[in-house]
Design brief:
alpha+beta, disordered N terminus, globular, 5 helices, single chain, about 30% helix
């Protein structure tokens, strides 16, 4: 009897294996040229069993597209005697240049807050890693200020209905990148969630890079910072001189 029960448990466990995700993106490389106005990424894929067949269970999908992370110092402005000056500041170790989340349902209807925080499934759970010790309330205020600013710039966004799932097999999401998007490597991480638990995840990568004249200028600025600054000043002075002469003739 015990042997039969053990065999039955093994069969049930073997049949309840977690699915796998097969992700893909419409562009693995985005080229930024003169006049670049932004682009739209299509993130799509399939939810399959380990044998490669249809999963046959209801899953929610969350896609997180994250840009390169950088250290950033956020300064607060205060008006003193009619002049705006820098006041308090906070430094963050790993603020992503771009962060977007698309899901098949609102996040709070898919997972609990702890799971959302572990996987950074939304702007409220974005881990910015502040540097230094300061008051938690101040930390939250500066973090909220950074997120709010980048939301206005179109660099941080959420779409609680941005993922379409077809027949519990295929999924797709569209995320737009603005013209101000930073170059570097972007990661598109897809999560399959069932009953509040992340049961599968997969990562695809997208490279954003400058090409043509913009790439040459960026390389010159990175490798020759002093001369690039000097050249920028000379160009500005020259343009001001030419503009002054033209207005004088008018």
């Amino acid at each position: 009897m015990r042997v039969l029960l053990a065999i039955l448990c093994l069969i049930l466990l073997g049949g309840a294996r977690d699915p796998i995700l097969v992700p893909e993106v419409s562009q693995h490389e985005i080229q930024v040229r003169q006049g670049f106005t932004g682009t739209e990424l299509l993130l799509f894929g399939a939810i399959l069993t380990p044998e490669g067949s249809r999963a046959g269970q209801d899953y929610d999908i969350v896609v997180v597209l994250k840009g390169p992370t950088n250290a950033i110092i956020l300064r607060e402005k205060q008006r003193i005697a009619g002049i705006w000056v820098n006041a308090a500041s906070a430094e963050f170790r790993s603020a992503p240049a771009f962060f977007a989340v698309a899901s098949s349902k609102p996040i709070d209807k898919i997972v609990d807050q702890k799971t959302a925080a572990i996987y950074e499934l939304g702007l409220p759970w974005l881990q910015l890693s502040p540097i230094g010790a300061f008051d938690p309330a101040e930390q939250r205020r500066f973090s909220a200020g950074l997120v709010e600013r980048r939301v206005r710039e179109g660099l941080y966004k959420e779409d609680p209905r941005g993922v379409q799932v077809s027949e519990q097999v295929l999924y797709q999401a569209r995320i737009s990148l603005p013209s101000s998007v930073q170059t570097g490597t972007y990661t598109a991480e897809t999560f399959a969630i069932s009953r509040g638990r992340v049961v599968a995840s997969a990562v695809a990568r997208v490279e954003v890079r400058k090409v043509g004249f913009e790439r040459l200028v960026a390389q010159f600025a990175d490798n020759n910072g002093f001369f690039y600054g000097l050249l920028a000043v000379m160009v500005s002075v020259g343009m001001g001189f030419v503009a002054g002469r033209l207005f004088a003739l008018v």
